[in-house]
Design goal:
Layout (H helix, E strand, L loop, with lengths): L6 E3 L6 E3 L1 E3 L2 E3 L1 H12 L1 H11 L23 E8 L5 E9 L2 E9 L7 H24 L5 H11 L6 H10 L15
Antiparallel strand pairs: 1-2, 3-4, 5-6, 6-7
The structure holds zinc ion.
The site of zinc ion has 8 residues, from helix 1.
Amino acid sequence: MKKMTDAELCDGCGKTDVLVERDGNEFCADCLTIVDILTSKPELLDHLCTLTGTGRPTTARDTLTGSPRELPDVLDAVRYRTRDRELNTWYVSISEMEGDPVEIFASTAFDRDQHLQSRISNLTTITRLISLILRHIFLGEVLTLDKTLKQLRRSSRQKNDLPDMLSNVLSNYRTSQSEGERHRAA
Ligand SMILES: [Zn+2]
């Protein structure tokens, strides 16, 4: 996974900021500081919460059976060649981690296609969402609505294409935590 440098919504607090990728999540500087403390000194936050009477925070780790695996920078990939019903050849690439599929990409020539842009954005939507689900299943990455919206927005190539429409509609269900961003996509 590459480091993100463009300003987008933090997976932690939901604010728009320059984000850094960490274990499949993207965090602003504030959240990253907390995450780093949680990672390097897991007992410190408990201790501080006890001292200040602010209660024990629920970490993503608590909700999982077993600790999440980290997605390394380089993954082995297996490429499959297949054909669709119109006999177009497709290359489907599956990134594997210890034999488990964690990311999927697909490509084809789209030679005879009249609606290239929308076909590409639809394809990108499918593979981005499947990859998100695979990371959830095999890496224990926590799924949120914001992460789903982010992948939809990144799949969009033109205003009001399918992923853009779907993310705009689904944005209405974002929680009050990131209320300030609610109408951003509208
Ligand atoms: Zn944040």
